[in-house]
Every structure is written in C-alpha cells, then in structure tokens.
C-alpha cells in the first residue's frame, strides 16, 4: 500500500506515460521478487506456474470484468464489438 502511494506521487510529477509504466511495474513487484528468489533456489516449476497464473488471471479477470461492466452500463442496448 505504501508503494502504491509513492508510485502515485511520482506519477503525478512525471506525467501519465512514465506514471503508467511505473504503476504497472510496481504493481507486479511482488511477483518479480518471488520469481527471482525461486530462480535463485533453482525452483523452475514455481516460476513457471507463477507466470502461468499471472497470465491467466490477467486475461480472464480483466476480460470478464470489462464484459460484465460493459453489460451493466449498456442494459437494454445491443453491444457491438467490431473494432
């Protein structure tokens, strides 16, 4: 939580592009630390499954949430996904 506060403060002064990159990097810093320690202890399977879980959760959770919110926001209107 403290790291997020610092990232937001730095993003305020550096602009949206640098702030967005910094926020994305700091948001995954715990996964990066776990992967580094697992690699240093030669636990390749832990790193593989950590990456797989991260990719699947980002794909499914973000897509599902966006479709759900889009459906709630456009009740009674047919949505078209042509772009």
UniProtKB/TrEMBL annotation:
GO biological process annotation, one example: intracellular calcium ion homeostasis
GO annotations of cellular component type: endomembrane system; plant-type vacuole membrane
Source organism per UniProt: Trifolium medium
Primary residence: membrane
Domain Sodium/calcium exchanger membrane region: 13-74
Name of this protein: Vacuolar cation/proton exchanger 3-like
UniProtKB keywords: Antiport, Ion transport, Membrane, Transmembrane, Transmembrane helix, Transport
Residues passing through the membrane, by range: 12-39, 51-77
Domain of life: Eukaryota
Subcellular location: Endomembrane system
GO MF annotation list: calcium:proton antiporter activity
Record's bilayer topology term: Multi-pass membrane protein
Pfam family, one: Na_Ca_ex
Alphabetized Gene3D superfamilies for the sequence: NCX, central ion-binding region
